[in-house]
Design brief:
Elements (H helix, E strand, L loop, with lengths): L12 H18 L2 H10 L4 H9 L18 H12 L3 H20 L2 H13 L4 E4 L15 E5 L2 E12 L6 E7 L11 E7 L7 E6 L10 E12 L11 H7 L1 H29 L1 E2 L2 E2 L4 H29 L5 H26 L10 H8 L9 H15 L3
Parallel strand pairs: 1-4
Antiparallel strand pairs: 2-3, 3-7, 4-5, 6-7, 8-9
Helix pairs in contact: 1-4, 4-8, 4-9, 5-6, 5-8, 8-9, 8-10, 8-11, 9-10, 10-11, 10-12
């Protein structure tokens, strides 16, 4: 199928600057080290901060203005994510997964579905995410086992989704299931449904919540479907067999977001390391004056800058409505690895104090690796990049 265009013009520079300044002020005021560490160390859902993000319109950031959203181009959205993630990466996952769900409806849904769901998504009245991953199906999305059979004016879902962001505190999820398990090729038998947990009863329950190394204070758990009945008008697009393309169609935006989160981690770790290197003294001078530390900081600032530029390049291509799986893959791959590398180097600069939970840097280190795994592993990104490069450069 041909995906609807994602073209959206850049924001007016003055309007964008004012918006980003507002985000900066909010981050500096509300995401203090004390607040972030309290929620992270205790794995507490940040209800008050989510309320504030709802009021700021972040749950409608990329949803069109005609449906009540902010209608931001992805380049502006990426800059917002970078800033928030530079202080607390987990928060960006709360609205990113939600916005990919909304993207699926806005790009592929019927007009009736858009009118019904998007205003509620944009207002944060309904929040949720994606139901793609299963215990035996991650990168290989076609290996899912969740099924949906037609029964009158409903579909009946059975199966388990795992590692689902917003699973506990969210209420609606775009869930992929097989409407034709015997279809060949397999992707032709997959369909995408909007599943409202509030209507689930015993048929839609929350399974195991994961106790994670990092990415704390955001719920990651299982969604379990047992004869769960979904109204047929919640089949996204109203046509069976389109789910694989609808799900993967939102991954370009998702990978740009993950890249922006990687940039945020890289820049946040650089900020903390730079400050510490100027405060900490050895041999009578700040460690920032020692060549060994200067080499690290030089690499870190270059890495963070390159990651930012790659991410904005991918976002610009997305906003032009171009196919950008290669650009999004490059950005996601490089920026997520930049986050890991900068977090690790910052740990070395902090020395023994990096292992203390009294310092923020240990959180950046714990949070960084998931960016290399989520939205398609970096191993898969390199394959996508290579295939697209060869395709664009035939012999």
């Amino acid at each position: 199928m041909t995906a609807p265009t994602t073209a959206r013009p850049p924001m007016d520079p003055d309007e964008e600057a004012a918006l980003l300044e507002g985000i900066n002020k909010w981050v500096e005021k509300e995401l203090t080290p004390q607040v972030v560490m309290h929620h992270d160390h205790n794995d507490i859902w940040p209800a008050e901060i989510v309320r504030q993000m709802t009021e700021m319109g972040l749950f409608g950031a990329t949803i069109g203005t005609e449906y009540g959203g902010l209608g931001l181009p992805s380049a502006t959205y990426a800059k917002i994510v970078m800033k928030i993630a530079s202080h607390w990466m987990s928060l960006t996952g709360i609205f990113n997964s939600h916005l990919i769900m909304a993207c699926a409806v806005e790009r592929f849904g019927t007009e009736a579905q858009k009118q019904k769901w998007l205003p509620k998504f944009a207002a944060g009245e309904i929040r949720g995410g994606l139901g793609l991953t299963e215990p035996n199906a991650g990168t290989d999305l076609q290996a899912i086992r969740t099924t949906a059979r037609r029964d009158g004016d409903h579909y009946v879902l059975n199966g388990t989704k795992t590692w689902i962001t917003n699973s506990i505190n969210g209420s609606c999820f775009a869930v992929i299931a097989k409407t034709d398990p015997d279809a060949q090729p397999r992707y032709k038998g997959m369909s995408f449904f909007l599943c409202d947990k509030r209507e689930g009863g015993e048929g839609f329950t929350i399974g195991k919540k994961f106790d994670k190394l990092g990415y704390k204070a955001i719920d990651s758990a299982e969604l379990v479907f047992d004869e769960f009945r979904v109204p047929a008008d919640q089949l996204i697009g109203g046509e069976e067999g389109q789910g694989f393309f609808q799900a993967t169609g939102g991954l370009e935006l998702g990978r740009i977001n993950v890249a922006a989160r990687g940039v945020g981690i890289a820049e946040g770790a650089l900020r903390l390391a730079t400050q510490y290197a100027q405060e900490r003294q050895t041999m009578g001078k700040p460690i920032a004056d020692h060549q060994a530390i200067q080499l690290k900081l030089g690499e870190m600032v270059t890495r963070a800058r390159a990651a930012r530029l790659l991410t904005l390049d991918a976002a610009a291509a997305y906003d032009r409505g171009e196919r950008c799986d290669m650009e999004a893959g490059m950005a996601k791959y490089f920026a997520s690895e930049a986050g890991v590398a900068n977090a690790q180097e910052a740990m070395r600069i902090f020395g023994g104090y990096s292992y203390s939970k009294e310092y923020e840097i240990e959180r950046y280190y714990r949070d960084s690796m998931i960016m290399c795994i989520g939205e398609g592993t970096n191993e898969m990104q390199r394959i996508i990049i290579s295939k697209q490069w060869v395709k664009r450069n035939p012999a």
